[in-house]
Fold:
Amino acid sequence: MPPAAAPTGEPAGDGPAIFGQASALLNTGRSAPPLSGADLPIAQEAAAALRAADYRRAPLPAPPETRVMVVANQKGGVGKTTTAVNVAAAMASRGLRVLVIDLDPQANASTALAVDHRAETPSMYDVLVDGVPMGDVIARADGFDWLCCAPATIDLAGAEIELVSVVARESRLRRAVATYFTEIGPADRPDYVLIDCPPSLGLLTVNGLVGADEVLIPIQCEYYALEGVSQLLKNIDLIRAHLNPSLAVSTIVLTMYDARTRLAAQVADEVRRHFGDAVLRTIIPRSVRISEAPSYGQTVMTYDPGSSGALSYLEAAREIAEHGRPLVEDRGEEGNVA
Ligand SMILES: Nc1ncnc2c1ncn2[C@@H]1O[C@H](COP(=O)(O)OP(=O)(O)O)[C@@H](O)[C@H]1O
Ligand SMILES: [Mg+2]
Structure:
């Protein structure tokens, strides 16, 4: 069978009748505005979608120096770990260098990043309790150019108690990170350090708060969401007053948002009233893909990069990276820490 002739502007003399009809219609003398393909609404929509896709793929800006953020909320199950690992993975997938420090004995962040955390693995327990260098416990997460994790092991559960009698027990993490940064030199430092905390306000979380410059608080969009946050803020004030004067609550992330409930919208409004600009515009939706990813040893960024959960964490990461750090007093010398 001969190949069908491509339709051209001029219908062939023996071409299908439809061409003749179209030609006749075009010759009726009725004027229509000239419409090029690029003007069609569908083409405009396609162009906007392409621009959005390019924007999402674009690398994220690196901060001038490492930003150390602690993900804290003493309430369990609000999305601390999920936010820490997915923001970290989103940043790493867009060219940033990210280190996740797992301070939770449950080691959920280590699991999600598929980093070894069996009992005998060198971990944050050894760093905090025995002074082992951070560089000896940090492991690479697969699937990214530069995403690392200092894992937790179950031993950390004992660290809350063992640290009580240790010198400068609140600033063990901060000192360990500072020493690590000195050892590796400025060129090899990560752009971001994200510290995942356990659901308590014990010594591990205190080490996280003393070790960071910024606090990222995930708040679940549900009733009682703000309960406990005021206690967390009081603790942050105490840490600022006594141990880490430049600590700032820079970022609030609303998580597990269910657009079908009015309650979620009310909670989001209330949190925005309370915290203003610190609240990211991006809200993380409740998403099955986000909750499935850790059981495959993955973040949602690799498990299902096109899902709404992955895209929302990417947007959250972009907001964090583009916001910069709020203006607060410069951090003093290391000697400020008790
Ligand atoms: N946006 C989300 N959509 C659905 N499930 C989520 C979402 N964020 C977290 N989860 C799930 O909720 C549970 C608690 O989240 P997690 O990040 O472990 O909280 P936390 O670290 O504060 O205890 C986990 O099972 C997690 O997979
Ligand atoms: Mg957790």
User: Anything to note?
Assistant: Residues 41-57 form the longest helix (17 residues). Residues 66-323 form a domain with the Rossmann fold fold (CATH 3.40.50.300). Strands lie at 67-71, 98-102, 139-140, 147-150, 192-196, 214-220, 248-255. The pocket of adenosine-5'-diphosphate (ligand 1) is lined by residues 76-82, 108, 199, 255-256, 284, 286-287, 290-291, 294, 309 (CB under 6 Å).
